[in-house]
Amino acid sequence: MSGATVLLADDDRSIRTVLSQALGRIGCRVRATGSATQLWRMVEAGEGDVIVTDVHMPDGDALDLLPAIRRRRPELPIIVMSAQNTVLTAIRATEVGAYEYLPKPFDLKELISSVQKSLEDRSSEDAAEEPDRRDEKLPLIGRSQAMQEVYRVMARLMHTDLTVMISGESGTGKELVARALHNFGKRAKGPFLAINMAAIPRELIESELFGHEKGAFTGATERAMGKFEQAQGGTLFLDEIGDMPPEAQTRLLRVLQEGEFTAVGGRQMRRMDVRIIAATHQNLKALIAEGRFREDLYYRLNVVPIRLPSLRERRDDIPDLSRDFLRRAEAEGLPRKTLSTQAIEALQEYDWPGNVRELENMVKRLAALCPDELIPGSAVEAELTARGPEDSGLRGASESERTLGAAVEHHLSRYFGMHEDHLPPAGLYDRVLREIELPLIALTLSATRGNQVKAADLLGINRNTLRKKIRELDIPVTRGKKLM
């Protein structure tokens, strides 16, 4: 490696100086530039053994240049640095053939290690094709270091069929990650189907997964396709895999081992052409120790693990997340709102046991109920105080009953003007009903510590109706502990 030439491109002179000195200390020669055009000229001239480049430079985007470099010099490793630390940047860098992607600010030792490894691993790989342009709408929000690690793993998995296990607390965005892996991967044109093991009666899980033939069991009046058959050519997301009953675990293991399955009550074997992504908020190793989850199935599913950080581990992302939720609220018909600096600080100080989902609900509630266009810190603090850890969320019911009607009336009055041309858009009933139903059911489940029988009794509704509402509203259910 001694004597290797590094082509270094960055418009920041201080970064060029620091990296040139560090690379020189390990015996590399450095050809540095702050221009994408000059970088290309050096590549055309056959210079360099490895490229280290920033994405954005005054005369162009390095990621737009990479496909041409890969066609011209397919053996040349390219390490990409970027301060625009989003999942799309990591995905684009990988798609256009980057050897490594490093978010700024980067660890100098890590960059040097990547350069050394790239020179050791250098080989003549086929040139990467230029990718299709993607919708620039971000599938995931967050630039924190914790999320950068997630993006880097995701980027490396996009064009593989490897089975992925996503772990993390409820509300961290596990399904969003699964959808991003599908939407930006080679199965993007196929279906993406999600099934929540915790929301399906255990006696119906095998039928839901594999389908059933007519007459397979009482009530099976016709053949039904299961999720494996429906997801052929695409991705199947198995959420809350830790809640899968033992008999279904055995059946799933056999399918993963053999690559084929039969419907319940059927004999015809069907080949499986499905990528599996599983997720859980539980400690599967603890469930294995308790005999509640098969160890061999765990290893089949946990081929590539992705751990999603809790929101309290990525507080720096709260401002970006909150602004995005306000934009969504506005798109749904709520008034345009902005969070004050004090409001953002108050949100960042809270621990968010419900994670990103809880933050989204809070921000949308503030958008709906706060009368001011600029949401003050006091409004956030009032919301957070009302939901302290010692508060079940139902305390003071008699006072709430006296004020609920007035609060709803005040909330609704802001949708209506004095004239017909100021009426709200259609669909107001369903929108307001959802705004009321979601916190009502979530708080009731919190008060009953996830006991759905007690919650249904308190609400005065059938348990099946409650389960349907939990599924429709995507409400997290954590047994044995308060949600808020």
Describe, in plain words, how this protein is organized in 3D.
This protein has 484 residues and is α/β, with parallel strands linked by helices. It has 20 helices and 16 strands. The chain has helices at 13-25, 36-44, 62-72, 87-95, 108-121, 145-157, 174-183, 205-210, 227-230, 246-258, 284-289, 295-301, 318-331, 341-349, 355-369, 377-386, 397-413, 428-447, 452-459, 463-473; strands at 5-9, 29-33, 50-54, 56-57, 60-61, 78-82, 100-103, 164-167, 192-196, 235-239, 260-261, 270-271, 275-280, 304-307, 338-339, 374-375. The protein has a 5-stranded parallel beta sheet, with helices on both faces. Strands 9-10-13-8-14 form a 5-stranded parallel beta sheet. The protein has a two-stranded antiparallel ribbon with strand order 4-5. It is globular, with a radius of gyration of 26 Å. It starts with a strand and ends in an 11-residue tail after the last helix. The relative contact order is 0.07. The model is unreliable at 123-136 and 389-403 (pLDDT under 50).
Give the SSE map.
Layout: E1 5-9, H1 13-25, E2 29-33, H2 36-44, E3 50-54, E4 56-57, E5 60-61, H3 62-72, E6 78-82, H4 87-95, E7 100-103, H5 108-121, H6 145-157, E8 164-167, H7 174-183, E9 192-196, H8 205-210, H9 227-230, E10 235-239, H10 246-258, E11 260-261, E12 270-271, E13 275-280, H11 284-289, H12 295-301, E14 304-307, H13 318-331, E15 338-339, H14 341-349, H15 355-369, E16 374-375, H16 377-386, H17 397-413, H18 428-447, H19 452-459, H20 463-473
Parallel strand pairs: 1-2, 1-3, 3-6, 6-7, 8-13, 8-14, 9-10, 10-13, 15-16
Antiparallel strand pairs: 4-5, 11-12
Helix pairs in contact: 2-3, 4-6, 13-15, 14-16, 18-19, 18-20, 19-20
